[in-house]
Structures
1.
Amino acid sequence: MMTAQSPLGPRGPHVRMRPFDEADREMFHGRNRETREVAEAWKSNRLVILHGSAGVGKTSLLCAGVVPLLREEGVHVLPVAHAAHRSSFPVAALPEHDPFRLAVLAAWHTRASPARVSELPMGTWLRRHPRIDRFGDALPILAAIDDAGMLLRRSERHEGHRQDFLAELAKAIREVPDLHLLLVVRDGMLPEAMDVADELGQATPAIYSLDPLTPGVAREIVQAFSHLPTGVPEKITAGALVDELRTARLGSYVQRTSTVHPVLLQLVHRHLGPQLSDDVGIPTENLRSEVDAALRDHCAQSLSMIAADHSFPAGDLFAWFRSVFGGPQGRAGVSAEACEDVPSAVIEAVQDAHLIRARTRDGSLYYEVLHPRLAEPITQLGDHAVPIRRPGPVVRLSQAHRALADGNAELARRHAEAAIRACGEGDLRTKANAASFLGDIAYERGDADAAVRHYRDAAAIFEAVPDNAAVGWLLTGIGRILLARDSGQAVQQLRAAAGRLPHELSVQAALGRALLESGRTHAARAVFEDVLGRDSNNREALRAKRAMSGIA
């Protein structure tokens, strides 16, 4: 049904502006037809591309609609992977770090540690976890990657990893004939998705376009809202609210659109919820101004936050957005070339905030206002930033993850530090995850001292949680960083990690390397032989053994 801005929050009609997930299925309304159609397409095709505008509800449809339906039917569906997801696992603990591979395979194979996931080919993993039907035949494996645009566009920081991941995915599709893959992308990324489909050997994938809500479906959803009164003529009805969200005004021009965008329905109901109780209500004549206020507040909040996050002058951003998207051209579409004065990261953030959407026409990229109903509130925007209402620490950490995935390490650092400051006594795990993530940022930019410091901070917090395994992996990350700087300290850290994670061969292999670096050749050889005795294909141990072949 709906997509939104924050990944977590209490359960409710909108799950607090985050996408619905499997646990929210009972609250997911209005997409029965689309759920059935996508499920059938996924079962019947090796590759499906699900696309739609920002905020139209692609993630919610997949997670709260399609996946639960298929599970009920006994279909073998892997957990949905999110390409922008960032594991709390410290990346320095990995012998090999491919962020795309880690995000996808760690989601598909939740029982395996990220270190183990990083070592085996994708096709091997998929073949190792078959599900057999009652006739003894292997069931198709349905796997999905949400937010797949991350995999489709060039990555300044990880382009080699991106290309390697796509090549491995193509190989898995060839090697595992039962694999059915679904990619979720925004409309503006559809051409890139088709190019990748060709690379994956699926030149004619099934394509499904998810559109905004019809008025009838929108009314059905509104009627499911707990705050909406019924049978009170002097108060607004579901039909009145839906009709107002379909009415686009620009000066004397008035038009009733054929659809309602889920994000607008969500925003307005969240804003009006307290007034939609039986005790208060909203007079029908005030509905237009109340809806304008809700949408205007969302625009002002979003633009103010984007300006602050990207160090872009708020006045310039407000003026640009109002002039470009508040008039007729905002509905018709503005070419990407006409927006070159605004950094691409800012435009992407405006799209992430569900203010605009990207479309491709005749091979060129255009941006247009998300829905015509936004035009009137946009023209009412002022010239200055408004006080920002920042989300809680969990959401702020999610924003940090997204910023790093988008290549903005500095913004990611600021969000993560803010998440730590926002943590209360009951937020120890979030605080520890944020500290570990700061270690990842430092490690990826080559600041070993800062990485070790942040990982140690995170380990101390995880001790208090308590989470023994998390501490063990952080010690592994510290030990691997110290391999090239202080082999004696590396041995100490990795011995401690091995004590907490005795069955993790990647920790043992790292300990063997540390022993070798510190001159303890016989001890190192014994460790490597033990690792290879348990897994003869362990790449790190095999490489180390080959390197030792010339050592007496």
2.
Amino acid sequence: MHDCPTCRVPLHGHEEVCPSCGTRQRVSKSYSGLLKGQPKKPPVNMLPFVVAFFALGVGGFVLMKSSWIGKLMARGPVQVDPMDKLSWLEARQMLYSKIDEGLKSVGSTGEYTWTSGGNPADINAPGPVELNVKTELADPNSRRQIMDPAKEFMYKAQVPSVVMNDTKTNATWTYSVQAPAVAPAGGAAGGGSEEAPPEE
């Protein structure tokens, strides 16, 4: 204990300010620890929590891989065939465009005749149609350069056969695919056969 140096009021030694006159006091060392509060608790060991969290993460990952989510992730993005987005008319226009581009690339032009069941038709005719291309080729082997980029559109375009006539050599080449099933009016196509590769 000690007295306040200003007003001489007896103090216990832990007061920071004299309750009588308000003078600041020097706190004795024995009480300074009490004023600062209780000693800090030892830190919590986080290692068991980290190990448990890691184990849960690994277990969850293994379980997820065997679930439908894991199978979906392993499969990756679904490959979409660009041909599926085309209508038969768009595919037919692409077929015509590819043949025309091929002819121009070898310095030729073509005369196009569309038929359906042996009757005259046009590029917009519904249902399967055949295409006859009359041209004059400087090199008969250039037909492959003309037709190879176009053949993939034949099935979707509902063009089961393309006949190319070379008036210079009197040669005829026929490219054909299996004709797609035609949907009845107001209904869906039945069967849905697989696409057959074009044959020369």
